[in-house]
Amino acid sequence: AGPQPLAGRKVLVTAGGTIERLDPVRYITNDSSGKMGFALAEAARELGADVTLVCARTDGPPPSGVTVVKAPSAEEMLAAVMERLPEADAVVKAAAVADYRPAERHEHKMKKGAETMTLTLVRTPDILQAIGDWRRASDKLGTRRAPFVVGFAAETTDVERHALDKLARKRCDLIVANDVSAQGAGFGSDTNIVQVYGKEGLVLSLEQQSKRLVAERLWQLIAQRAGWSADG
Ligand code: PMT
């Protein structure tokens, strides 16, 4: 094995696209395959971490050697993440969480009726925001060192502006922006192209490479910024 900058660290990674049910056979979801989150979990395991992977809907099986927790919807993911937050040294949120869910979840399969139908959607909880609020509260109480928090930002326009806005609003330590309209980046592909922002602005820019390599570079950066590595 190579160097293990994450040895002895507990990390929490989220992956996949949440599914927000309308009835027992229908739901709203998105194009996330879980590949980015899986790559992060696998790379963290290789770098020595104790990894918990919180998964929504994904394509294919998760990597071996990590603890997998299923959390299909945004609300289930919120509960799964918040429960494990107190033990985590780092949280990386690669999952694509739905911003809205159907207001009503029908117990039985909905029947065909009128020519048109209107769906009412309501906001889901923002998990990253909840983590930020929790960190602020625990900072105030001075209870324990809060985990290092990394969000992702899937954007199609004005990537930098939106990423910096999310970093500030959701109070993360770093935000990984990917322009999901670029070829070879974002949803479903085996590669990604990302820019990582901290409070001071751009801190790392990675050109097109496998999600696995992107994941490794991200963990190296996290270990360094969190003060875990010898050269931190
Ligand atoms: O899974 P793949 O096919 O490999 O694709 C990877 C990816 C494109 C999904 C991934 O790289 C990515 O960008 N993930 C974040 C997608 C997303 O939901 O972005 P967002 O800009 O809508 O959200 C910003 C951040 O807030 C994310 O870390 C998200 O997990 C979080 N969030 C969003 C909504 C919500 N209700 N709760 C959240 O915590």
Automatic annotation (TrEMBL):
* Catalytic activity, reaction form: (R)-4'-phosphopantothenate + L-cysteine + CTP = N-[(R)-4-phosphopantothenoyl]-L-cysteine + CMP + diphosphate + H(+); N-[(R)-4-phosphopantothenoyl]-L-cysteine + H(+) = (R)-4'-phosphopantetheine + CO2
* BP GO annotations: coenzyme A biosynthetic process; pantothenate catabolic process
Spell out the molecular function terms from Gene Ontology.
FMN binding; metal ion binding; phosphopantothenate--cysteine ligase activity; phosphopantothenoylcysteine decarboxylase activity
- According to its UniProt record, the EC number is 4.1.1.36, 6.3.2.5
Pathway(s) this gene product operates in, as recorded in its UniProt entry: Cofactor biosynthesis; coenzyme A biosynthesis; CoA from (R)-pantothenate: step 3/5; Cofactor biosynthesis; coenzyme A biosynthesis; CoA from (R)-pantothenate: step 2/5
The residues listed in the UniProt record as binding CTP, with positions renumbered to this chain, are 99, 109, 125-128, 152, 166, 170
Region: Phosphopantothenate--cysteine ligase; residue ranges are 11-232
Name the coenzymes or cofactors required. Answer: Mg(2+); FMN
What residues does the DNA/pantothenate metabolism flavoprotein C-terminal domain cover? Answer: 6-224
Q: Give the signal peptide range.
A: none
Q: Name one GO cellular component term.
A: phosphopantothenoylcysteine decarboxylase complex
* Coiled-coil stretches: none
The record's similarity note reads: In the C-terminal section; belongs to the PPC synthetase family. In the N-terminal section; belongs to the HFCD (homo-oligomeric flavin containing Cys decarboxylase) superfamily.
Tell me, in a sentence or two, what this protein's role is: Catalyzes two steps in the biosynthesis of coenzyme A. In the first step cysteine is conjugated to 4'-phosphopantothenate to form 4-phosphopantothenoylcysteine, in the latter compound is decarboxylated to form 4'-phosphopantotheine. Catalyzes two sequential steps in the biosynthesis of coenzyme A. In the first step cysteine is conjugated to 4'-phosphopantothenate to form 4-phosphopantothenoylcysteine. In the second step the latter compound is decarboxylated to form 4'-phosphopantotheine.
User: What is the recorded name of this protein?
Assistant: Coenzyme A biosynthesis bifunctional protein CoaBC
